[in-house]
Specification:
alpha/beta; Immunoglobulin-like; TIM Barrel; 10-stranded mixed sheet; 8-stranded parallel sheet; 11 helices
Length: 474
């Protein structure tokens, strides 16, 4: 019996190894006849346009002087969780203002997995943020440590119905993570949800319990929460809802309160993320949290934003130093111009190539005034605009550029080796669960130019318009 079981075990191991090696060899040697091309390009009529197929030609050796994207499907890296945006109060209010027909148009364009951008990873806020019509919490009763008065009734009017409709359109396939902008004022040192301030030590446990009540309340409404960030922009003193944590304060709160509380209440499966702020000092924040084993065991990974500098190397350094932790791009507020769209594509390519596992922009919908928004600060256009005078939707250039990624790089896709020999062309490449390869290429120059995608002795050549984003499917 022992020998029989041992032989069976060895056979299983050898079989799995042979399948993996065979698959890996297949990836390295796979040949294609053509590439299906989709394009969004400035100063053209092409917006997520199907540009038909391009035949692949034999090419043993790429020329150093010919713009070439070179990919190797045999070398894989991180898996993709998804792409999407944020269910803010502003987005939900604007959605409610639309006619039934326009609501369906937006839902299909955003969440439909076959005919829309297919968003599968989305953010929401724990009570109000700057993009809320008013400031509110789920418990405004001063000193209510037991949270007897906790209620998400405010969200039942706009935000929860919006999220329920989105989930239905996406067949339930949206991972939602939630972020607080500030604890209630009565929990804070400055007795104000605005202007920074800190969480009072005597409310550490109450605030941890607040997270649990939020998650369980949303689950009762059919909205499962996949992940949490500890604090939005933990070092930003804003004229809107904000709260400050140093690296040690955030680590200690997770280690001593939030992590154990989630575990005690059966929520240890939630993906808990730290930082949720800019790339600039993300390594220092990671080091403080991950070097403490008691804190680290509760932390799934790190969220980050783009607002101060590029610092893409910092993203890679966090991965290289802590490869067992995850990286998620969690907020990109932007305007609706072509320049915003090109900057969006550049950031997405660079982040994905530096180990990001997902990418979420900010508001889904803003009105023509960049709101509603109760707080101060800049207002602007957005990825999609609701014209409240006409009731129409305006899909701005960033919507189409984002779709060049989200429509073709599916959850579970693995990044593959992808390099470029041209400063004018940058790219990222993924192999999807169905073995289709998606290569997203950005032409950074202001000139039309021919480039090629090379793989395993074959190349697909294409004339790119200036400032174009092109996805090739093999």
């Amino acid at each position: 019996m022992y020998r029989s079981n041992r032989a069976r075990f060895l056979f299983t191991i050898l079989f799995i190894a042979s399948v993996w090696l065979g698959s890996n060899t297949y990836c390295q040697k796979m040949k294609f006849k053509e590439a299906h091309v989709y394009m969004t390009a400035k100063s053209t009529s092409n917006l997520l346009s199907d540009m038909d197929y391009r035949a692949l030609e034999p090419l043993d050796q790429p020329d150093e002087n010919y713009p070439t994207i070179m990919i190797d499907p045999g070398k894989t890296f991180q898996s993709i969780i998804g792409f999407g945006g944020a269910f803010t109060d502003a987005s939900a209010i604007n959605f409610a203002k639309l006619s039934k027909e326009k609501q369906e148009e937006f839902l299909k364009a955003s969440f439909d997995p076959n005919e829309g951008n297919g968003y599968t990873l989305c953010r929401t806020t724990i009570h109000s943020c700057d993009y809320s019509a008013d400031m509110y919490t789920y418990d405004d009763v001063n000193g209510d440590k037991s949270l007897k008065h906790f209620s998400i009734e405010h969200d039942m009017k706009y935000r929860i119905p919006f999220m329920q409709r989105a989930l239905k359109t996406a067949n339930g396939n949206i991972k939602i993570f939630a972020s607080p902008w500030s604890p209630p004022a009565w929990m804070k040192t400055n007795n104000n949800m605005l202007y920074g301030g800190k969480l009072k030590p005597e409310y550490n446990q109450t605030w941890a319990d607040y997270f649990v009540k939020y998650v369980k309340s949303y689950e009762k409404e059919g909205i499962p929460i996949w992940g949490l960030t500890v604090q939005n922009e933990a070092m930003a003193v804003q004229v809107w809802e904000s709260c400050i944590y140093t690296a040690d304060e955030e680590k200690n709160f997770v280690r001593d309160y939030l992590g154990p509380t989630l575990q005690k209440d059966g929520l240890s499966n939630l993906k808990l993320m730290i930082w949720d702020h800019n790339r600039g000092i993300m390594y220092q924040r990671a080091q403080a949290a991950y070097d403490d084993p008691e804190a680290s065991k509760y932390i799934w990974g790190m969220g980050y934003h783009w607002y101060v500098g590029d610092h893409f190397d910092n993203v890679r350094m966090v991965h290289d130093a802590f490869p067992d932790k995850h990286l998620l791009y969690t907020e990109a507020g932007m305007g609706g111009s072509w320049n915003d769209a090109i900057n969006l594509a550049r950031n997405m390519i660079m982040d994905l190539n530096n180990w990001a596992e997902g990418w979420t922009f900010w508001n889904f919908l803003l009105d023509e005034n960049g709101g509603p928004r109760h707080a101060g600060g800049e207002h602007g256009t957005n990825i999609v605009t609701v014209d409240t005078h006409t009731g129409n939707l305006v899909f701005n250039p960033p919507y189409y550029v984002f779709g060049q990624f989200s429509r073709f790089i599916k959850p579970g896709a693995k990044r593959i080796a992808c390099t470029s020999n041209s400063d004018n062309f940058i790219a990222t490449a993924f192999i999807n669960p169905d073995n289709k390869i998606a290569v997203v290429v950005l032409n950074l120059s202001n000139a039309d130019s021919i480039f090629q995608v090379w793989m395993n002795g074959q190349a697909a050549k294409y004339l790119s318009p200036a400032n174009a984003v092109i996805t090739m499917l093999f």
